[in-house]
C-alpha cells in the first residue's frame, strides 16, 4: 500500500510538468535504493522546439544526459549553458533550475532523480 501511495504521488508530481506546452516526461522506472529514505526515478523528458520544463526543484539530486537535440540549462547561481546530445549534467538537491530546447528539432533528456521518499519528485519554483 505504501508503494502504491508513493507511486501515485510521483505520477501527480510528474503530471505537473507534463502540462507545460511542448514538454513531457515518460516514466521508465522507480526503484527503492539501499539508503532507506531515498528512491531513484528515471524518466525520458521530451521538449518540442522552444519548449521549457518551467522553473522547478527536486527533493534530491538530478543526473541528466542529453540524448537528442540542444538544451539550454539554467541553474540558479550559474550562467546558462548549452548542452548537446552526448553531454551530461548534474543538479544539486533543492536548486531552482529550468531546461529549454533551443534547437530546431526535438530534444530528449534521460534524467535520473535520487529523491526523498514521500515527497513529490518535482515542485514548481517562483517564475
Task: Explain the overall architecture.
By secondary structure, this protein is mainly beta. It has a single domain, classed as Sandwich (Jelly Rolls). Helices cover 13% and strands 49% of the residues. It is built from 1 helix and 10 strands. It has one helix at 2-18; strands spanning 23-32, 38-47, 56-57, 60-68, 70-75, 81-84, 88-91, 97-101, 107-116, 123-124. The chain has a 5-stranded antiparallel beta sheet, covered by helices on one side. A 3-stranded antiparallel beta sheet has the order 6-5-8, with no helix packed on it. Strand 1 (23-32) and strand 2 (38-47) form a beta hairpin. The model is unreliable at 14-18 (pLDDT under 50).
User: Reading side by side through the largest sheet, how are the strands ordered?
Assistant: 1-2-9-4-7
State the major sheet.
Answer: 5 strands, antiparallel
Structural class: mainly beta
Shape: globular
Helix and strand pattern? HEEEEEEEEEE
Distance between the termini: 36 Å
- Given as residue ranges, the uncertain stretches (5+ residues, pLDDT < 50) are 14-18
Give the CATH topology.
Answer: Jelly Rolls
Rounded to the nearest angstrom, the radius of gyration is: 14 Å
**What count of domains describes the coordinates?**
1
Number of strands: 10
Portion of residues in beta strands equals over 45%
What is the top-level CATH class? Mainly Beta
Task: Detail the topology: elements first, then pairings.
Layout: H1 2-18, E1 23-32, E2 38-47, E3 56-57, E4 60-68, E5 70-75, E6 81-84, E7 88-91, E8 97-101, E9 107-116, E10 123-124
Antiparallel strand pairs: 1-2, 2-9, 3-10, 4-7, 4-9, 5-6, 5-8
Amino acid at each position: 500500500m505504501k508503494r502504491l501511495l508513493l507511486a501515485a504521488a510521483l505520477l501527480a508530481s510528474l503530471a505537473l510538468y507534463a502540462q507545460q506546452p511542448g514538454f513531457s516526461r515518460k516514466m521508465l522506472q522507480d526503484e527503492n535504493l539501499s539508503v532507506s529514505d531515498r528512491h531513484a526515478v528515471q524518466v525520458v523528458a521530451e521538449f518540442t522546439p522552444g519548449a521549457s520544463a518551467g522553473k522547478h526543484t527536486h527533493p534530491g539530486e538530478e543526473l541528466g544526459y542529453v540524448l537528442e537535440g540542444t538544451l539550454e540549462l539554467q541553474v540558479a547561481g550559474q550562467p546558462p549553458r548549452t548542452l548537446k546530445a552526448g553531454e551530461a549534467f548534474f543538479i544539486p538537491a533543492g536548486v531552482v533550475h529550468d531546461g529549454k530546447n533551443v534547437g530546431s528539432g526535438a530534444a530528449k533528456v534521460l534524467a535520473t532523480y535520487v529523491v526523498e521518499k514521500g515527497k513529490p519528485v518535482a515542485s514548481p519554483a517562483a517564475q
